[in-house]
Design goal:
heterodimer; A: mainly alpha; 2 domains; two-stranded antiparallel ribbon; 2% strand; B: mainly alpha; 74% helix
Chain lengths: 255, 511
């Protein structure tokens, strides 16, 4: 949690955001039927689907305003003006590029790219290895400079994938080879592995961590994934190249 | 005769559960996993229950309950390992244990502290199990007379009290969190008229927000971000010598154990607040009633005993409102609710009709879990504590991956992940800003109950709120909720404090 003093200043803004959100809920609730018939049911206010959302919206708005008021009273108008000035100054950029903030960005990028971009398009096991390896290398070396380097490399690769998917190249390439996208992902993974190795090979301690990270990234998905796929019978979000190979051995297709 | 029947059913179910070898394996495996989850800072029993919920999907309801209750019990106890050995609480529930557990370890008595925490935790769980079987019929008797007004007010009360007691900052933030959870519960088509609310034309949102992925996101993602962002590093782990069960110490402190267990069960019954509050309240009570309060914080044995009995007694206490009213008493119990519904068990007053022996079965499983926890704690503690050496940047990404595959596997729906990640990131910001997450989760879970019952109640009363004030339980709940709100007003709070100070002054004058 943020320190108490800064928290009160932040409360002014969070209270305002909460109030606006409450007003939005109220505006949406007022569009819901409160009279006439809907779905065969005659509406009155106490049967209306708007009843609870409207009440929640009003309460959230009031609580947000109250929070704003308490925060302003504690902070004082002078300090509030200083905070607004700070937000509009270059010090905000400095804050947004702090090491701790960069760590948050790294984790957010990893989760968002995995779930919204990769998971439904690339083989699950490749995704898992890439996710784990990128995550571990960014944080296990306890070096923010290295983390930024790896994050930029990872981000560059993901931007290329966004362009690849957005331009519909996935359909074209997969038409040529069924697992073209997975092969591209494998190349990206290999590239990341090599890039991160070259960044840490001079340092014996980091080399040791790199090896452990690589082993864990390879082992964990191949222990957890098969448990879900073959024992709990959960189909993977995307079953591509690696799942095809695993199926080939699991179902003894070579016999 | 009814009591004898129940006792006989209890032992029958106990024997039935242990006669299946798979259940024994699941029991010990889950307890061990729970202890590891509890021991590792950044992981919690809530997350453990959430992740295992996905794994139990293919199991029978009985085996699933063995698995989930065992990890819950193990996770609550496991936090004491890191509290005692490295002075970092493994879970919030064991934060109070660190105050005296770590100084004990520094004096070379780590084995004694762990032995005491193991035996205390087992006793706390067993006592809460006894309360579960004895109080449940009474609560059910009253709950069967509840109407929709009572259920609506219970849900509302649960959200309000959770917000009031779990907030690390202003109470208003706890309430905001609770109402945000209520809002999330409104997403989807409403049950009475099937009108789409806040779905924005997205068909996947028609059935509403899936509870378990939201819970995993709300609890798991912020934990991962916080641990790795703050670079939580484990210092030297204190060595453990022989681990002793400390029965003599237990026998000498029976009154303290009873008090701590009552505190744990009582706190557990209150919706939304969890084992951490039980442990702190018990610690405070132990210190205030001790002949040597100056020893607290320096390795006082009764402090470790009190906190560990209370936090594990909270487990059974939290299950009491969960099973009888459908209102979870703690965040892990909230996860259990999601798991129970997945297995076709709807907690609430009708549970004794739909599943007559379910509550007694849960009590039997709690007893088995506490015994398994004691055995594992006594025999494997020295090996289990090795997990404390696993660096956070290694196990946290694995936990992240487990959250993702676990959420996805519930419903085989990638949309669960599309909800889980944004909820997780927003929850992270909320917790950084001092908004507690537990009320948000309670709001998501109790929202449908509140919505349906409010409208049903008003339909019956033709729009009148009068029955809320004429029915005794409703009136009591209304007054408690009003009091909770009014006491936040500075004027009312000052008057209340003055009144309490006057009463205590009169008592000390009389003495």
């Amino acid at each position: 949690m943020i320190e108490k003093e800064k928290l009160r200043k932040a409360d002014v803004f969070s209270g305002a955001v909460v109030s606006l959100f409450g007003l939005w809920i109220v505006s949406q609730a007022l569009k819901m039927p409160m009279k006439d018939s809907w779905g065969g049911v005659m509406n009155v206010w106490y049967v209306s689907p708007a009843l609870l959302p409207l009440s929640i919206g009003i309460i959230i708005t009031l609580l947000g305003l109250l929070l704003c008021r308490i925060a302003l009273k504690t902070v004082g108008p002078g300090e509030f003006k200083n905070t607004v000035r700070w937000l509009l100054s270059r010090r905000l950029v400095w804050f947004l590029s702090l090491d701790t903030t960069m760590r948050f960005y790294a984790m957010a990028v990893l989760f968002l790219t995995l779930v919204f971009l990769n998971l439904s398009r690339i083989d699950f096991f490749l995704n898992a290895v890439l996710f784990l390896f990128a995550f571990i290398t960014m944080f296990y070396f306890f070096d923010d400079a290295l983390m930024k380097k790896f994050l930029l490399f990872y981000l560059a690769g993901e931007i290329l994938f966004i362009i690849y998917f957005a331009l519909g190249l996935e359909g074209i390439f997969n038409g040529v080879h069924a697992y073209a996208t997975d092969l591209l992902a494998l190349c990206f993974l290999a590239g990341y592995v090599i890039y991160s190795w070259r960044s840490v090979r001079e340092n014996p301690d980091l080399r040791k961590r790199y090896r452990l990270g690589l082993i864990v990234s390879l082992l964990a998905p191949f222990i957890i994934g098969p448990i879900f796929k073959y024992f709990l019978l959960v189909p993977m979000p995307k079953e591509g190249l690696v799942v095809a190979v695993l199926d080939y051995f699991w179902y003894l297709e070579f016999m | 005769m009814l009591v004898l029947d129940q006792i006989s059913t209890y032992f029958q179910l106990l024997v039935q559960t242990v006669s299946v070898p798979a259940n024994i394996a699941i029991l010990f495996g889950s307890v061990l996993l729970g202890i590891m989850f509890g021991a590792l800072p950044g992981l919690t029993s809530t997350l453990g229950v959430a992740l295992l919920t996905a794994v139990t999907y293919g199991m029978s309801a009985e085996s699933a309950m063995v698995c989930l209750l065992a990890i819950y019990v193990g996770g609550t106890y496991g936090g004491s390992y890191s509290s005692i050995l490295i002075n970092i609480p493994g879970t919030a529930a064991s934060a109070a244990t660190a105050l005296d557990g770590y100084p004990l370890a520094r004096k070379g008595e780590a084995g004694r502290a762990i032995g005491l925490s193991t035996t205390s935790s087992a006793i706390g769980t067993i006592v809460s199990m006894l309360f579960l079987v004895s109080i449940s019929p009474i609560i059910l008797h009253f709950a069967l007379q509840f109407t929709s007004f009572e259920f609506f007010l219970l849900a509302f009360f649960g959200i309000m009290i959770s917000g009031t007691l779990t907030t690390p900052d202003l109470v208003i933030k706890g309430w905001i969190s609770g109402f945000l959870g209520l809002f999330l519960a409104c997403v989807g088509r409403d049950k009475l008229q099937f009108f789409p609310r806040f779905t924005f034309g997205i068909p996947e949102l028609d059935s509403g927000v899936e509870v378990v992925p939201v819970l995993i996101g709300a609890f798991g993602i912020p934990q991962i971000i916080q641990v790795l962002k703050d670079r939580l590093q484990v210092s030297d782990v204190q060595k453990i010598q022989r681990i002793l069960p400390e029965f003599k110490t237990i026998v000498r402190n029976v009154p303290k154990i009873v008090r701590s267990a009552l505190i744990g069960v009582g706190v557990g019954c209150v919706p939304g607040i969890g084992e951490d509050i039980a442990a702190w309240v018990s610690y405070g009570a132990a210190k205030n009633t001790s002949k040597h309060p100056e020893n607290f914080g320096k390795g006082e044995i009764t402090a470790v005993l009190s906190t560990e009995v209370a936090n594990n007694a909270c487990v059974g206490g939290a299950i009491i409102p969960l099973l009888n009213l459908g209102i979870p008493g703690s965040p892990p119990a909230a996860m259990l609710l999601g798991a129970l519904m997945l297995h076709g068990v709807t907690p609430g007053p009708m549970i004794t009709f739909e599943h007559p022996t379910f509550i007694i079965e849960c009590a039997a499983i709690l007893l088995l879990a506490s015994m398994a926890m004691w055995v594992v704690g006594m025999t494997l503690a020295k090996q289990v504590v090795k997990v404390l050496r696993i660096p956070a940047p290694i196990f946290m990404p694995i936990v992240g991956m487990l959250c993702i595959i676990g959420s996805y596997s519930l419903g085989i729906n990638i949309w669960n992940l599309y909800l889980m990640i944004p909820v997780g990131i927003i929850s992270y910001f909320l917790s950084e800003m001092g908004y507690p997450i537990a009320p948000l989760v309670i709001g998501v879970i109790l929202g449908p109950m509140a919505d349906e019952n409010l409208r049903r109640a008003l339909m019956v009363s033709q729009g009148s709120f009068l029955p809320m004030f004429t029915r005794p339980v409703s009136l009591a709940l209304v007054l408690i909720i009003l009091w909770m709100v009014l006491v936040q007003i500075p004027l009312v709070r000052n008057l209340k404090n003055k009144a309490i100070a006057k009463v205590f002054r009169k008592r000390s004058v009389k003495r």
